[in-house]
Design brief:
The structure holds two protein chains of two kinds. Chain A is mainly α. Chain A has helices spanning about 20-30, 40-45, 45-55, 85-95, 100-110, 120-135, 140-145, 150-155, 170-180, 190-195, 235-245, 250-260, 270-280, 285-295, 295-300, 310-320, 330-335, 355-370, 390-400, 405-425, 425-445, 450, and strands at about 200-205, 210-215, 225-230, 230-235. By secondary structure, chain B is of the alpha/beta class. Chain B folds into two domains: about 20-100 and about 250-310, no CATH class; about 110-225 and about 320-495, Alkaline Phosphatase, subunit A (3-Layer(aba) Sandwich). Classes of the chains: A mainly alpha, B alpha/beta.
Chain lengths: ~450, ~500
């Protein structure tokens, strides 16, 4: 038996077969879906090595393949051009050889949901790099950096929270949404006192450059004694972060929230206690907890999860060996319900409800765009002149990287192929219908419940 | 059935469509809201991708195909329908989609529209005790000046914000009921918790169906997604059902379902297959499969029903439509929106009601976020002006179409804001706030009373005197004629108010 590269887990470990099905789930949930060949390669590694390859990447991330560009071949300008920021990060999701780092960055973006509506693409991308640095790092350090991050200071009014005039916005959301959970061991007095502790951050405004020079100004800080969670002291923003992560309800909030991003099953109480203990004993390190979750039996045996729109979109491009070649992805993202750097509000995206009629139609737009250069037409007039219906299905599946569909979906897609074949009665249709059949299958495969969930 | 032509004022059909922004050299300007950009792309009639058509196929050739012709090529029979529309024939256009859906529910059934003012609107600015010295002390920079707006009819110590004048006029005409002190006991100052309570119709974190969703589960249909229509481009939690289908669109003219490289019958069959796959798996025990499958299943009905509006678009290319009412054949002028498209969504809603779309519960959210922790005036004034003017236009539109007896609008926000302003020219989260009911059949007047500023709660917030759940119970009983106990937990213990004439 080979030595596990991960060491013992603080909680239960999956011991069933780690085959292509399990590898597929791991690649969708801890990354952005498989490229052709990834499933087989990941399955061959076995679970522990597969998890380690995601959680312990070596060195700096490399971006594989052609750099992103717009439809005219020009490079992106994420700081200055509307929508290019979204496309810039989408490209990293498609091309990075450290997909879990990008996925964790996306989790932190939703966890500490900040919108560029209050700042700028420049400050959002600066925040994005900060979150990427902490991707699998330490939650306490992440919280400290988020608390004084310029985009966050602007978003939740930390920059106008002054001595004598406390603004509760960040102080409340920090407890409610970021560290403890609503009404879990704090009250309005704690919120108010926390806001006092957080006073002192400010910035200047430049006509040309907008908000600049973010800094702590002791003159603006309330240096008085505060009482937070029953403790008294002349607390400042660092104390505020420390008090939050050492609060008795923080570990259970953190574990349940992180678990929910990866696993569709309820978190069992025993697992919760084991992970909470490991998290606190480990000094709020994130990587060991993620590793434990990615090896947990419920990760592989629990129900499926709807793949978030931006993850699914990156997956479309990865599966079909494409990269970002149009900036249309920015506005398509809003039809699908997930625009990067623009979460709907400070509680982030609602991971429990990704689909409805409108966003289903939005995802079809995404497929439409991914097929932009990959539908058969015109010059492919004689496409597949001998292609049978079954072959057409297989070719379409292969176009999207070879992921199998459920028996129901397969049957209905084969029926559709037959129907398109039968329906072509005019002379001019006899040759061309095979193109349409192939196009129809390519349109539908990523829209199936199988492909949209993992 | 209304006799108005549905597509009056629609696209100048042969104008060159505007290129989608993402495909031009012109970068987006910073102030351009992303949602606007999307809607413009959809409204432009131009697909986002350049296409190459095989000239041997019986479809229009060339990459410059516009959406109208594209649809004509794609959807069998649509070209004929289109011609009929130009000739002023309207019923023929409706196809079997609406007719079939309308048969499910008689078209004179009552409609409740829920409008969520997101972020917690500052009730003390909307309806202000302007003459109260205590108010002026609590609000040194934000107070509404005495005499600056219309006096509130039921309580002369209160003044409507000047930006809310259109609403004040509607109130004076007896078409707005005002709840100036609405909330619940033990108020939660979290946006998400408080909003959730309102959405689910209970002060409970556990419920995960909306109050209107539960009503639709007990009184609705298993086959009509339009009975619960979200106009937010995504599902509104108020309408979350456990069983029965609902739909989400943005405006009726931009529900766009396109396939790439598939046309004619094949396109129709492909989309049918997508919906049938949904029908097949929507009862899956796996919640994720169920979620995707339900959406796919409902897309089929939505697509067929909204076909009459699919080529109604603004080709002016000048940003938000100056009068979205014109897009939807309304005789009433709706305000132009600087950001978002609330007026257009309401105009589209009026048009759908007029054409017999079988609506019952509708929910939408303001584009404006009223969470004014800083620089409150900037957001509040323009936001309130747009909301009030849009609502007044919608009400006038319904009256002009003779539909006002069928519709009431429930306007609410998750909480009011702190009586004392903060140091950032803004206000923090509060407790009791203001809610409204608008329509020709509401009682008008005031329910409850203004929560006095000298009796604030321990956190410095206004105390509630009307429970929001009592209003929800009263609406279910008086507007829908259904037992509230089947929908709202503890309904029997909650008061009832006479809300409908």
């Amino acid at each position: 038996m080979t030595e596990s590269p991960l060491g013992p887990s603080p909680t239960a470990v999956y011991t069933g077969r780690f085959g292509e099905q399990q590898a597929t789930r791991l690649l969708w949930r801890a990354g952005f879906g498989p490229r052709p060949g990834d499933v087989e390669a990941t399955a061959r590694l076995g679970m522990d090595a597969a998890v380690a390859s995601l959680t312990r990447p070596a060195g700096r991330a490399r971006l594989i393949g052609r750099p992103p560009h717009d439809e005219k071949g020009r490079p992106l300008d994420p700081l200055n051009v509307w929508g290019d920021d979204h496309c810039w990060w989408l490209d990293r999701m498609v091309r990075s050889d450290q997909p879990l780092i990008e996925r964790m960055t996306l989790i932190w973006h939703s966890w500490f949901a900040t919108s560029e509506e209050a700042s700028s693409a420049k400050l959002m991308i600066r925040q994005n790099w900060m979150m990427r640095r902490h991707a699998l790092g330490n939650f306490h350090r992440l919280l400290l950096d988020v608390t004084v991050d310029p985009a966050m200071l602007l978003w939740l009014n930390g920059n106008t929270n002054e001595r004598g005039y406390p603004n509760e916005n960040y102080g409340r959301e920090m407890l409610e949404l970021f560290t403890l959970g609503a009404d879990r061991g704090y009250n309005q007095q704690d919120v108010h006192q926390n806001a006092r502790a957080l006073t002192g951050w400010t910035n200047d405004w430049s006509e040309a450059r907008g908000p600049v020079n973010f800094r702590f100004d002791p003159q603006l800080h309330d240096n008085g004694v505060k009482r937070i969670f029953g403790k008294r002291g002349r607390f400042d923003w660092r104390d505020s972060c420390r008090l939050a992560v050492t609060h008795p309800t923080h570990a259970s909030f953190f574990i349940a929230k992180l678990w929910g991003y990866f696993v569709g099953a309820e978190l069992p109480q025993q697992t919760a206690r084991e992970l909470e203990r490991a998290y606190v004993a480990g000094g709020f390190e994130v990587r060991p907890i993620v590793e434990a979750i990615l090896r947990h039996p419920l990760f592989y045996e629990g129900p499926r999860l709807v793949t978030p729109p931006v993850v699914w979109t990156a997956g479309l491009l990865r599966a079909s060996r494409q990269t970002v070649t149009t900036t249309s992805w920015a506005w398509i993202a809003s039809l699908t319900g997930q625009v990067l750097f623009q979460p709907p509000n400070v509680s982030g995206w609602n991971y429990a409800q990704w689909l409805d009629t409108s966003r289903w139609a939005g995802r079809l737009w995404a497929v439409n765009t991914a097929l932009q250069n990959h539908v058969l037409q015109g010059k492919h007039y004689h496409y597949g002149i001998h292609e049978t219906n079954t072959e057409a299905y297989r070719h379409a599946i292969e176009f999207w990287g070879g992921l199998p569909l459920s028996a129901t979906a397969q049957r209905m897609l084969l029926e559709l192929g037959h129907r398109i074949g039968r329906g072509q009665t005019q002379d001019w249709q006899q040759v061309g219908f095979r193109q349409q059949r192939q196009n129809a299958l390519r349109n539908l495969i990523p829209m199936t419940p199988d492909w949209m969930t993992a | 059935m209304s006799e108005q032509p549905p597509l009056q004022g629609s696209a100048a059909q042969d104008a060159e469509p505007v290129l989608p922004r993402g495909t031009t050299q012109q970068p987006y300007c910073d102030g351009f809201a992303r949602s606007q950009a999307v809607r413009r792309v959809l409204a432009s009639g131009r697909l986002p991708v350049a296409r190459e058509w095989d000239p041997r196929m019986p479809v229009p050739a060339g990459a410059g195909i516009d959406r109208r012709r594209f649809l004509a090529a794609m959807v069998g029979g649509f070209a004929t329908v289109y011609g009929a529309q130009r000739a002023g024939l309207t019923d023929g256009m409706l196809g079997d989609g609406i007719a079939r859906a309308a048969a499910i529910r008689p078209t004179d059934s009552p409609i409740l529209v829920s409008l969520f003012l997101q972020g917690g609107i500052d009730a003390l600015s909307l309806l202000a005790p302007a003459g109260d010295p205590l108010y002026q002390r609590l609000r040194p920079t934000l107070a509404v000046a005495p005499g600056s707006g219309v006096q509130f009819r039921e309580d002369p110590s209160l003044t409507w914000h000047p930006a809310a004048t259109s609403l004040a006029n509607l109130h004076n005409a007896g078409k707005v009921t005002v709840f100036p002190g609405i909330g619940y006991t033990d108020p939660d100052m979290s946006h998400f918790t408080s909003r959730h309570y309102w959405e689910v119709g209970a002060t409970s974190a556990e419920l995960n169906t909306g109050w209107l969703g539960r009503y639709l589960d007990v009184a609705g249909s298993a086959s009509n997604p339009f009975q619960g229509l979200s106009l937010d481009g995504q599902m509104n939690p108020t309408l979350a059902t456990a069983r029965n289908p609902t739909a989400a669109i943005d405006q009726p003219n931009n529900f766009a379902v396109y396939l790439n490289g598939v046309w004619g019958d094949a396109s129709e069959w492909t989309l049918e297959t997508a919906s049938r796959l949904g029908d097949n798996q929507r009862h899956s025990r796996d919640p994720a499969i169920k979620q995707v499958a339900s959406a796919a299943s409902e897309v089929g009905v939505v697509r067929r029903t909204l076909k009459p509006w699919s080529n109604v678009h603004d080709v002016s290319g000048s940003g938000p439509a100056t009068n979205p009412g014109a897009l939807y054949g309304s005789s009433v002028s709706y305000p132009a929106a600087a950001t978002g498209d609330l007026p257009a969504r309401l105009a589209g809603l009026a048009a759908m009601i007029a054409h017999g779309v079988p609506l019952h519960c509708v929910a939408l959210t303001t584009d404006t976020q009223f969470d004014t922790h800083s620089s409150q005036q900037q957001t509040f004034v323009s936001g309130v002006q747009l909301v009030c003017d849009s609502l007044a236009a919608f009400q006038a539109d319904l009256e002009a179409r003779g539909l006002d007896h069928r519709v009431i609008i429930h306007v609410w926000s998750e909480f009011g804001r702190r009586a004392q302003e903060n140091g950032s020219d803004g206000t923090d989260h509060g407790a009791a706030g203001t809610s409204l009911l608008i329509g020709s059949r509401v009682n008008g007047g005031m329910v409850g009373e203004f929560a006095p500023l000298d009796r604030l709660d321990v956190n410095g917030n206004q105390r509630e005197n009307v429970d929001f759940r009592a209003v929800q119970c009263s609406l279910i009983e008086q507007w829908f004629g259904h037992d509230a106990a089947a929908v709202i937990p503890d309904a029997r213990r909650l008061k009832r108010y006479r809300l409908i004439t």
